Amino acid sequence: MEDLNLQNAQMPKIDIKKYPTYKCHKCGGQLFEHACILKEISGLELGMGTESFAYPLEVLVCKSCGEILKDHQEELGLSEKEEKKESNLIL
Fold it and tell me: What is the pLDDT of residues 62-76, one digit of tens each?
């Protein structure tokens, strides 16, 4: 039977074994799970009034220790001790 998955049909053939495996920078784990971070975005910036909204961003989290993949931390401007602030989010 033909593979009808067009996404796979467009991928070039590569030898995956020759590339390094991502590891958690905290514990060295190699298994990750999908998780979601919510960023608070001002309604004023979105042109939707004064209330803030939750904007979901998908990240990868180490399955062993729960640490967010370091690339995602840097990309999203997250620090290990992100300041907590009051929020008036509408979900």
Answer: 999 999 988 888 888
The answer, as to whether pTM is greater than 0.90, is no
- Dist. CA 74–CA 68, nearest whole Å: 10
Assigned token pair, 83: 């300041």
41: which 2 tokens? 């975005």
Backbone angles phi, psi at 69, to 5 degrees: -50, 130
Residue 44 Cα distances to 38, 40, 49, 53, angstroms: 18, 12, 5, 10
Largest CA distance in the chain: 56
The tens digit of pLDDT for each residue in 23-32 reads: 999 999 999 9
Distance of CA 38 to the CA centre of its chain: 10
Cα–Cα distance, 62 to 69 (Å, whole number): 7
